[in-house]
Design goal:
- This protein is α+β, with helices and mostly antiparallel strands.
- The protein is about 15% helix and about 40% strand.
- The protein is built from five helices and 17 strands.
- The protein has helices at about 5-15, 20-30, 35-45, 170-180, 230-235, and strands spanning about 45-55, 60-65, 70-75, 80, 100-105, 110-120, 125-140, 145-150, 165, 180-190, 195-200, 210, 215-220, 240-245, 250-260, 265-280, 285-290.
- The strands form three sheets. Strands 9, 10, 11, 12, 13, 14, 15 and 16 form an eight-stranded antiparallel beta sheet that branches.
- A hairpin with a 4-residue loop joins strand 5 (about 100-105) and strand 6.
- Helix 1 (about 5-15) packs across helix 5.
- The longest helix is centred in the N-terminal third of the chain and has 11 residues, at about 20-30.
- The chain is globular, with a radius of gyration of 18 Å.
- The chain starts with 6 loop residues before the first helix and ends with a strand.
């Protein structure tokens, strides 16, 4: 790939007539190193969002928490991560030596977010080094302001087993139906050429429509026109979603088929879950919406 974008991203930029402009912008804002403000930002976070791909080529999105400093950057090309294994997390298989991953650092109480995509190198004791492939910032659009607290120590397991759901059941419908925030993992390429991305999606509560057959319909709001998520979906038709329950610390994780729909009036995308996992009390964190 000679430019900052792959064929799927360029195809969607073309629909808006902005491909040439986005090529110019991308070469300026997509970096192969972390700016100092990103390095400092990651080091102060109590959690981060990760996108991984398992051995069957399924993308998964997950959240991992830790005390401030569980991510540290010794230099602009590397981020050190403390990620103890969580066998019940379906994204765990993709957190391995040599794997391509996407990472999103997001601070809900300030609405800041920055992205880092690259490859992992396993160290020891559940520690990894994430080498920078792509580093870029995101605007605060559609982020709902939430304050957090730790309900228990980050290294203290909940003791509650994960549940595989055969379909989108009542619990999943309720969480998806009231969600105003979720995260989506996608990827392009294979092997050494694989690039994994994970991004934030937000809107009013109920932003995701849920059809009777369990298909999720997601609007695509105007944004930075990178089309990282939709461009990946256009290429391989796969996505992994995670819906956090901010009240309970639970995570609803899904992996399945996705498609982009261009309907003339705009864009949306549809997601058909193939694998669904509910992890009750998966996170030690709880969040509360700030008063408007």
């Amino acid at each position: 790939m000679n430019g900052p974008w792959h064929a799927g991203e360029i195809a969607l930029q073309d629909t808006l007539g902005v491909a040439a402009r986005m090529d110019e912008i991308g070469r300026k804002v997509i970096r192969n190193y972390m700016p100092d403000q990103h390095r400092e930002f990651f080091a102060q976070l109590p959690f981060a969002v990760f996108g991984t791909v398992d051995g069957a080529g399924r993308p998964w999105a997950t959240l991992r928490a830790g005390e401030e400093g569980f991510m540290q950057s010794p230099d602009p090309q590397r981020l050190l991560l403390e990620l103890p294994a969580q066998p019940d997390d379906p994204a765990q298989e993709g957190l391995r030596d040599g794997a391509a991953v996407g990472m999103l650092g997001i601070e809900l109480h300030t609405r800041r977010r920055n992205r880092l995509n690259g490859r992992l190198r396993a160290l020891d004791g559940g520690r990894f080094e994430l080498g920078v492939g792509e580093s870029f910032g995101n605007c605060p659009q559609y982020i709902h302001v939430r304050d957090y607290r730790f309900e228990r120590q980050p290294d203290e397991a909940s003791g509650l087993p994960a549940r595989r759901l055969p379909q989108v059941d009542a619990l999943a419908r309720d969480l998806v139906g009231r969600a105003a925030t979720f995260f989506v993992a996608t990827y392009s390429g294979e092997g050494e050429a694989m690039r994994v991305d994970v991004s934030h999606r937000g809107g009013p509560p109920g932003v995701v429509q849920l059809k009777r057959d369990g298909t999720l319909v997601v609007p695509d709001y105007e944004g930075n026109r990178f089309f990282s998520t939709l461009g990946n979906i256009l290429l391989n038709g796969k996505a992994g979603l995670v819906f956090p329950d901010f009240d309970s610390g639970g995570l609803l994780q899904m992996s399945g088929a996705a498609r982009v729909v261009l309907d003339g009036a705009g864009r949306h995308w549809e997601f058909e879950p193939r694998e669904i996992v509910w992890r009750e009390d998966a996170l030690p964190l709880r969040w509360a919406l700030q008063a408007a």
